[in-house]
Design goal:
By secondary structure, the protein is of the alpha/beta class. The protein has 6 helices and 4 strands.
Length: about 160
């Protein structure tokens, strides 16, 4: 006989453990680059060129196309709290330069470049992003294995408890 009360409690505890691992998210505006450690600020006219340079170099850097200087300024504010973020700006350079002037502590992590191939390559080199690859394959693999292990242990414990009862 299966004790339904015991099974319900076990399932409830399992769900509680899973919910405890969910990371809370609090938002202030829209940050398109929150998880990016390196990206390029571009617009419609410079985005394609920046993407082709990044692809030619084999660098794993995201190119974001912004539509207004206000969006760029808002995004630059996040660099004050993320010391690992590196940014190359090929558009909205006035906004970016004003931000650097107001916050000189980020000047080593934010580089302004002209919208041409050589300037973009030099900017990426200045930020030490040439040869840069983000997480790659290992981080998603290890994350998936950890999630699978936790989930599998929970299901296995419930299954064995039912089998032994």
């Amino acid at each position: 006989m299966i004790n339904l009360k015991s099974s319900g409690i076990s399932i409830g505890i399992f769900i509680l453990i899973i919910v405890a691992f969910i990371v809370p998210v609090s938002a202030h505006g829209v940050h398109v680059t929150t998880n990016e450690s390196a990206f390029i600020i571009a617009d419609d006219s410079t985005g394609k060129l920046a993407r082709s340079v990044v692809d030619d170099l084999g660098v794993n850097v995201t190119v974001y196309k912004f539509v207004s200087a206000e969006d760029v300024a808002h995004e630059l504010e996040s660099t004050l709290t993320n010391p690992n973020q590196k940014i190359l700006a090929v558009s909205y350079t006035g906004t970016v330069q004003n931000f650097i002037n107001q916050h000189p502590e980020v000047s080593s992590r934010i580089v302004v470049a002209s919208a041409n191939e050589n300037a973009i390559q030099q900017g990426l080199s200045k930020l030490n992003l040439v040869g840069y690859n983000s997480a790659g394959f290992m981080t998603p693999l290890l994350s998936g294995l950890l999630i699978g292990l936790v989930f599998g242990l929970g299901i296995g414990a419930v299954w064995m408890k039912r089998k032994l009862s």
